[in-house]
Input
Amino acid sequence: MPTFEFLTCDVFTDKRFGGNQLAVFPDASGIDPSLYQSIAREFNFSETTFVLPPKDPKHTRHVRIFTPGGELQFAGHPTVGTAFVLATIGEIKLTGAETKIVLEEGVGPVPVTIRGENGTPGFAELTIAKLPEYRTGPSAPDLARALSLDAGDVLSGEFSPEAASCGTWFLMVPLRNRAALTKARVRLDVFEQVLKGFITDMVYLFCTEPELAGSQYRARMYAPTIGVPEDPATGSAAAGFGGYIAKRDKRLDGTLKWRVEQGFEMGRPSILDIEVDKKAGAVTSIRVGGNSVLVTRGELIV
Output
């Protein structure tokens, strides 16, 4: 029976058993694509990636991303983690302090910068393929009910619920404080009712009370309808969040930087670094990066 190598890593952390788990098949060319979904469900991580030769020879690899519930056109921690794994096993040759590659995803070509020392990768940073889009979200009181919160726990006004996308839509939900973030729980029946017909049912909760020095935000992400009850680190949501925050930031020009904590409530602490370039008040680029560590290596029998 044919076997295929896989590796797992923890993404957006520098310690094993933190961050967000990812399974990577560095050469999925021989795997029947009809099995990708079943394999992702077998691993049951928030995402599994299947690496294929690039469609455009100018690019590095083509990557397909699956959650236990379906395929994604773009996702952050799979992009960062896949680049890290390929560099770690020598499939991508590091060319110095920074190595620039391009991964093809459903959203389009995604540039990634890999940083490392002495030929060993650590930090990887993606650049969005699409500038952010926005949609007005459901009301704060309705979202509070869906998240088992008091009406005043979800903010409205300048910081209010709004969906943002740099390739994948997330609903940004600002909360009053970390106590509200900690007690948030999805009430699935109300959650499905409130978000029925909306552009996304993946919600990104955040507050301005982080735990660690150097962080500016604390976040949680729920996507129960695609098999992700809670995600420890969500790079694609962080990209949209960068657009959401930059849109409200009064600075018109320059590079804005924020650090986000996620996954702490799950016991998988994650750190995501966001950079947003603005010119004349408009967002021109967003980057999301973090560290990764290798955890396991094995073979899948199909």
The chain has a mean pLDDT of 97.
